[in-house]
Predict the structure.
Amino acid sequence: MNWSIVQQGIPTYEKAFMITLKLSFWGILGAIIVGLIVSFVRYFKVPVLQRILGAYVELSRNTPLLIQLFFIYYAFPELGFKISAEASGVSGLIFLGGSYMAAAFAGGLEGVPKIQVESGRAIGLTDWQLAQYVVLPQGLSLSIPAIAANVIFLIKETSIFTVVAIPELTNTALDQIGMLYDTNEALFSLVVGYAIILIPLSILLTWLERRARRGSFGN
Amino acid sequence: MANELLTVTHLVKNYGKKEVLHDINFTVEKGSVTVLLGPSGSGKSTLIRCLNGLEEFHGGQINFEDQTITPGFKKWQPLRQHIGMVFQSYDLFPNRTVIDNILLGPLKVQKRDKNEALAQARQLLKEVQLSEYENAYPRQLSGGQKQRIAIVRALTLNPDFMLFDEVTASLDPEMVRGVLEVIEGLAARKMTMLVVTHEMNFAKQIADKVLFLENGKIVEESSGHQFFEQPQTQRAQDFLSSMDF
């Protein structure tokens, strides 16, 4: 290991780090929004829409992100939808993550005991008020462990973005290996880059899980 | 007729192809306490849940005040503000404090003034001797305390009719008394109530009318006094003699 090579590479990895962070942020945010919508539609059994979104969930969960990205970046322009590599990456992450987040939210919503829903109805809450004051607060806190796992999973999935030449962490490391043969230094920088994102995030999410559990059931 | 708050006529309820409530007919007079008795599985809870739309029914009708409710009725939500219900299992919202549990209905459903609703909630909490638990979470309360809070939560909506579905069934014996005293207090104030219970002494003391249900049918309907002193059917006599009270 040549530490001076590692040191020289820091500015490049900083840029890659920021790109990974930025794309992860937008992808995860989008996935959470899609997941919430899908889980609500399925929880409240909205006719027609629940079948369409059911098909989306199956397609999304049963195809690899790599293939999804190929479609978004290479096949869609043939149909007239041309978007940048970064937008393709974020779209792919949302497409994949949306179904995983939907499953996480659905698990939480379904975990809310039936008696809670009935007692909400018994005091006259409307369906929307039930969702807002009873099902969602309890369901979301039950979902947090699964959502946290998905967040970590989706950040790691950004490594696939290299196939559409987004200069994120993995792409940068592969470039360094391919062009300069600095394999050890590149892999070291790559691991450090992901660790800087994932370890503090993992600690934060664990703390959030504990806090949400207390928030949900009183302290 | 004018004194009837609720009339149930030829009510039928099915689970799939199986009929579980058969031709149920009864009335509940304003200010009276009707007790629904019967062995486990006789359909008491199912019947009481039909009265506020938590269970669908498939035949007959329910008249509540001036509202006629027939199978497939969809507008239960506004009616439920007038029909309070307390369940067997503790049903407080665990993510909300006691006072937030109580005020959810008055503020969000009835859109009442917060100070006015809060004053009423505090008065009722005082009456059930739980004022000091206003800011506690449900998990900090005993089963009996939770049930008393659940009663307060239903009462704060100012219902015309209260349904109690075996509210003491999950409680330790020493907790039961406090909950029953609250219901007795309501009876003394002429709250119209339909009570499902297995507490026979309580039922005897409180019932103006008893409906005895077996296999989804009302097999005996009589005044509270008559039911406990001179039950008319052999089945009711057997039931009462099997109960230790």
